[in-house]
Amino acid sequence: MANVSVYNMEGKEVGTMELNDAVFGVEVNEHLVHMAVVNQLANKRQGTQKAKTRSEVSGGGKKPWRQKGTGHARQGSIRAPQWTGGGVVFAPVPRDYSFKMNKKEKRAALRSALTSRVNESKFIVLDDLKFDEIKTKKFQEVLNNLKVNKALVVLNDNDEKVVLSARNIPEVRTVLTNTINVYDILKYNTVITTKAAVATIEEVYA
To answer: Which GO cellular component terms are attached (predicted)?
Structure first.
């Protein structure tokens, strides 16, 4: 089992913790990780883009000039794609970009992403993360103590004081253990979590 250091909010090491290899020590499957990221981004797309083809553009019912004898190239409609104001060739239409991933694939991708963060020493465990008041400055001090700037903070409980303290820091995102995803884990440089959150993750994904 992988051992990681446990820190307090002052950035001092206060112990170590063993991580479950079934979650944090798997063989990294890059294909599944890539598929999970593409899946999440594709599912976010609205797919509402639309442009008109030549059959949908208003006008153009009359042939602009006769077929022969004018010296011009023959034209059948002023709404053909080569005309200004004409239709678009192969115009985009509304569509659904989402696709399905199996539950086992999603879980395997998440385990791979977590393992990669542990292997890169970008997985920081805190003994606890609590504030007496909502204060962005205090949360920033914790990040400075841990020498971290861009971080995904995984919480076990929806602690409003912690969430609101982190909300105004642009490079920080807070999530609960049941909402973590591969895209966020890879997007942020470091994953910061608590011992309680690690226990929950191991219970759910082992």
So the answer is: ribonucleoprotein complex; ribosome
Q: How far is CA 172 from CA 75, 113, 169, 180, 205, in A?
A: 58, 18, 6, 14, 24
Instruction: State pTM to two decimals.
Output: 0.82
- Name, in order, each residue with C-beta under 8 angstroms of 92's C-beta and a sequence gap of 6 or more: 49, 50, 51
Q: Are residues 40 and 140 in the same domain?
A: yes
What's the rounded Cα separation, in Å, for the pair 165 and 149? 15
Pair 86, 109 in one domain: no
C-alpha closest to that of 143 among 10, 2, 1, 3: 10
Domain count, the chain: 2
28 and 125 assigned to the same domain:
yes
Phi/psi zone of residue 73: left (φ > 0), alpha (ψ -120 to 50 degrees), beta?
Answer: beta
70: containing domain: 48-96
Q: Which pLDDT tens digit goes with each residue over 152-200?
A: 999 998 889 999 999 999 999 999 999 999 999 999 989 999 999 999 9
- Same-domain status, 139 and 107: yes
**For 95-120, what is the mean pLDDT?**
94
